[in-house]
Design brief:
transmembrane helix; membrane; 88% helix; coiled coil; transmembrane; mainly alpha; elongated
């Protein structure tokens, strides 16, 4: 007899399951779009690195032919190190930014699902506050985590701006 009840439940999905499935499809499509953009960014970075290597080679040839300032040839290794260091910083920053956006979107989707669950629990049985209270605690936890991550992200951005300004001076 319990198997029959289970098959009836499987055949007739509830509205919250349909909404949850749609949300998960949206998340999957966003993840796929992000992965495609990451691949495009990687290709663009590789192309830029190739252009940089070609440009450095051309500058070296011009320097050897006497078409460029003679004293810049002595500072060349330090410049390469700075350029590579800046490229690594940019890569790291873009990676952190992308990760934080994905995480924020996941948190927002989870918060939406928890809110739908709270509303469903309140509508289905207004006298049973236990489920709503547990979901409310989960929602508060998600909100506090999002706020914390945004705070940490803003602090790291300000630190990076300060260090870049100090390097410019």
């Amino acid at each position: 007899m319990p198997i029959l009840k289970l098959t009836k439940l499987v055949k007739m999905p509830s509205k919250s399951l349909v909404v949850g499935a749609r949300i998960m499809e949206n998340i999957e499509s966003q993840m796929q779009a992000f992965e495609e953009s990451v691949e495009l960014n990687k290709q663009e970075i590789e192309e830029n690195e190739k252009k940089l290597v070609d440009f450095e080679g051309q500058m070296e040839e011009e320097r050897n032919e006497g078409l460029f300032f003679k004293n810049l040839g002595q500072k060349q290794p330090a410049d390469k190190a700075k350029v590579k260091e800046e490229m690594e910083k940019i890569k790291q920053l873009s990676k952190e930014t992308a990760e934080s956006k994905i995480r924020r979107n996941i948190y927002l989707v989870l918060m939406g699902l928890v809110v739908v669950g709270i509303m469903n629990a309140l509508i289905s049985s207004p006298s049973d506050w236990g489920k709503s209270a547990v979901l409310g605690v989960i929602l508060v936890g998600l909100l506090s985590q999002v706020i914390y991550e945004q705070k940490v992200l803003s602090e790291t951005e300000t630190k990076q701006k300060q260090t870049s300004e100090e390097e410019k001076k």
